[in-house]
Amino acid sequence: MVQQYLGDVGKTAEKASCPFTLTRRSVLLGVLFALCTISTGFAAAQNRAPPKVGVLWPGDASAFGPYHQAFQEGMRTLGWVDGHNVRFIVRYGDSAPSRFRAVAAELVALEVDVLVAEEQTLPAVRQTATTIPIVCGDFYDPIAQGFTSSLSRPDRNITGVSWQTIETAAKRLELVKELIPGVKRIAVLFQAGHPGAALDVKAVLSAAGGSNLTVRTFGVSDSRGIQAAFAAMKGDGTEAVIVSWNPLTELKRHEISRFASSIRLPTFSEGYAFAEAGVLLTYGIDGLEAFKRAAFFVDKILKGAKPSELPIEQPTVFEVAVNLKTAKALKLTIPESVMLRATKVIR
Fold it and tell me: What is the CB-side half-sphere exposure of residue 62 using CA atoms within 13 A?
């Protein structure tokens, strides 16, 4: 009886051990499966292509290289490194607007995740990239340009940074009057055919309306046109010229300064690059910082945000740059009221 009992106990113990052994094996198999899954997922993540950011500049690298570098610097600050976790596909329009749409279509065909556009290339990009998020770093005024009906909630696939050039045009005209008391005749030099430039000119004319100022406008498309414009200014007694900040005028800013200097004509503009080139006074935002800030929008979009969720930003800081070398050459004294507002002075 004892032997039989012991035998039964042994069998019972053996049977009882079976479920434990199977459970342990299941757990081990489960762990192995999980490790394989994690390893496969990690390998897939490593092999996954980084997002692609298309960038279209209207001119060549010599003209827009600094802006592109500023944009890339902004991206690096946010952790995006070209060739590592993001790929920049950069194209230049070589100052040929007729090519912009074809180049934009090329970027769309490359299936970029977001497109960065300069104001001049934006119309072509918008026509081609109808669903791809677009970031612009230099709107003149996005509502006036028809790119959106709201700054706080863009109603298309476009967002970015506005320079509010139309609003600051009136301020530049005020500075002309402050530096040249009693001025009666001014000129506005701008890039012919440039939509943003046309808005800038319109803003100056509007600001001058109702005053005793005579404003003459000169649209130019090359160096010959710039030379002819200054010859006309010399002939009609122009006392000051406002240079609209456009791709062409920025590219030719040194020429513009030389022509103005040759007829002792005070010049005013929007961007600091013009003051460095010899323009007497500039008032506006830092363009390089604007494109650096554009990286913020690209970063948010790559992380899942939609353009409509990213309000278009307006500038809060404006620079007043004074070129005292030019003032001395023109025998002009810069009023203390202007010098106190100057954020940059070229001596």
Answer: 5
Pairing between strand 185-191 and 214-220? parallel
Pair of tokens at residue 202: 């319109």
Query: Which contiguous run of DSSP H or E holds residue 258?
Result: helix 253-262
pLDDT in tens, 38-57: 444 444 445 579 999 999 99
Q: Which helix (H) or strand (E) holds 165?
A: helix 165-179
Same domain flag for 206 and 85? no
How many helices, marked H, and strands, marked E, lie in the chain?
13, 12
The DSSP H or E segment spanning 295 is: helix 287-302
Are residues 318 and 341 in contact, defined by beta-carbon separation less than 8 angstroms?
no
Q: Can you tell me the mean pLDDT for 109-118?
A: 97
Q: Which of 108, 113, 110, 109 is nearest to 121 (CA)?
A: 108
CA distance 182 to 262: 23
| Predicted pLDDT of residue 33 | 52
Instruction: Judge if 260 and 126 occupy the same domain.
Output: no
- In this structure, the answer to whether residues 174 and 220 fall within a common structural domain is yes
Distance CA 126, CA 51 (A): 20
- Would strands 281-284 and 319-323 be described as parallel, antiparallel, or unpaired? antiparallel
Where in the sequence is the domain holding 57, given as residue range(s)? 52-163+288-309
331 & 202 share domain: yes
Are 104 and 82 found together in one domain? yes
Residues 171 and 279 in one domain: yes
DSSP structure string for 26-91? HHHHHHHHHHHHHHHHHHHHHHSPPPEEEEEESS-HHHHHHHHHHHHHHHHHTT--BTTTBEEEEE
For residue 273, what are its two tokens? 């690059």
**Whether residue 203 is found in the same domain as residue 279:** yes
- Mean pLDDT computed over 132-140: 96
